[in-house]
Amino acid sequence: MITISESDNWEICSSSGMKYGQFVDWEKIDPEPAKKYQQILKSGHQQLKRMGREGFWAISHTLRAKAYYHIIHNINSRAVTPNRDVYYDLAKKLFGEQKVMGTLLPLFLSRYCLNKAGMNSVKKILICLGSYFPDMSYCPILPALVSLILHFSEDEAECFYSVSRLICYKDPNKRYIDQTFLTYRASCMTFGDLANRCCRGIRKLIASSHQNLFEFYSDWIMWLFADLPFTYAIRVLDVYLLEGFKVLFRLVATPVYFFKMRFLFWPDYSDVEDFRTDMKRFVQSVARHCTVEKLLERAFQIPIATRNELNLLFNANKDALMQKGVSTHQKRQTVESVDLNSFSSSVVTETEMRVIWAWIPERFALFNPVRLFHIAEDGRDLSSLYKRVEGHEPIVLIIKTMEEEVFGAFLSMDLMERRNHDSQGLTYFGTGECFVFTLRPSMERYQRAMVNIMTRIASPQQHRDGSSSASQLANREVCQLTKTSGQNIVCCLCDFRVIFSGGDGGHALCLCDNLEEGNSELCDTFSSNPLCKGHFQIQSLEVWGIQNSIYLSRSFHSR
């Protein structure tokens, strides 16, 4: 373990930093911070995480400065980090003896309690970082991080060194700083996916108002580092330095949750002209809604994916952005949004399709919907549905009943997977991203609160003996895929009917081979109620894919 050298130079004091009191031994007046600092030095990483969450070093400015020094200098960076001498050389080369006055800083930094000399130092450090890391082309949170860490640094060189260690940290499962527009937007999308799980309802709210959901989530990290009050931002930094990017996803989900709760008491949200601006104002005034302790408490109660799953999701989102033409080297650009102005369907309205597209994973929602199957054009035949749909991933199945009920399911995998398993029993397949939903008479999405991109093969299961109508219908062999956290996820397919299911907990959706009728019941996998009144007659049915989905069925059928 690296410990702080020349500890006698680090006075644990309660002074405000003013020059008076410099001859006082503050440890004798208030020995508690000194004792806490010794505890910090003796603590392992897990203990430090708990301390950070509890505000262990928040009692003293200098104690927090020493804690940050200890934490940052123990970050195991995999790259060579520039030291203090590098900063002095860069500053001399770039500025000489002149002060930097011309560079503009973001307006939000005025809330970070820095004087003119401090703001000038922030400019110098940012310019030096830009010079030393030329590949870092887009990093909106950098001015905030420099400003916050400067509060607790001995001088500019130490702040430069500390921030450089965060920039150089290369472990993909514990990132600190996005350095390109591509990775920044991939992180925005990753948060959007997580918010879709833990802040249910907010996406439907924004999509129903025809506002840009993608742009709404693009501000997520700035809510924490630019819009939160200063005392809240410092507590965010306490845990961020120890836990990396993952903890930011937790922390930002809390104000989004409280923002959504407002609309439970204000159902008429039609006069909200811009949810993005409204959210920004809400975060700035978050102290009116919860204390920083309550925000942290709530954040660490939120179930979230593992670091490995988050990394998988981040990389999948990054790949999707690259398919949209976003490159690593461009400094900034907008991402083309989905165009539903020319959307046409006999089952759902444009607004309803916007809601569905708000529910599906971000990497798919980047692309326009494409209709793959419609019974009015392709016939009431399950084999025809397979022929039209196989090779596309993902798909959205939407049904309208004779009772004018509208509901459906999102399947994250290609239906061709049903051919890949040789089993005499039922086999389910899919991932934790699959879900079922209703649109009419009410809008609701049913999905387990998990993120699971990797598809894991589950052993075949014989069809359960049960009395439900869906169970009585299914009597021929099918094939299976994927178990997640002890629950069978999602979709069961057979030769003459398709069953969107959760395994032994009931079938969320069951369709007959002639696509004339079906059934829906309670389903444990999705924690879903019946999607309709139970047994239903099909008035219309459509299957939708996405514009960039990989189409393999031609090559498959040609073999």
From TrEMBL:
<dbReference type="InterPro" id="IPR000195">
    <property type="entry name" value="Rab-GAP-TBC_dom"/>
</dbReference>
<dbReference type="GO" id="GO:0030659">
    <property type="term" value="C:cytoplasmic vesicle membrane"/>
</dbReference>
<keyword id="KW-0770">Synapse</keyword>
<dbReference type="Pfam" id="PF00566">
    <property type="entry name" value="RabGAP-TBC"/>
</dbReference>
<feature type="domain" description="TLDc">
    <location>
        <begin position="346"/>
        <end position="547"/>
    </location>
</feature>
<dbReference type="InterPro" id="IPR006571">
    <property type="entry name" value="TLDc_dom"/>
</dbReference>
<dbReference type="GO" id="GO:0012505">
    <property type="term" value="C:endomembrane system"/>
</dbReference>
<dbReference type="GO" id="GO:0045202">
    <property type="term" value="C:synapse"/>
</dbReference>
<keyword id="KW-0472">Membrane</keyword>
<dbReference type="InterPro" id="IPR035969">
    <property type="entry name" value="Rab-GAP_TBC_sf"/>
</dbReference>
<keyword id="KW-0968">Cytoplasmic vesicle</keyword>
<comment type="function">
    <text>May act as a GTPase-activating protein for Rab family protein(s). Involved in neuronal projections development, probably through a negative modulation of ARF6 function. Involved in the regulation of synaptic vesicle trafficking.</text>
</comment>
<comment type="subunit">
    <text>Interacts with ARF6.</text>
</comment>
<dbReference type="Pfam" id="PF07534">
    <property type="entry name" value="TLD"/>
</dbReference>
<protein>
    <recommendedName>
        <fullName>TBC1 domain family member 24</fullName>
    </recommendedName>
</protein>
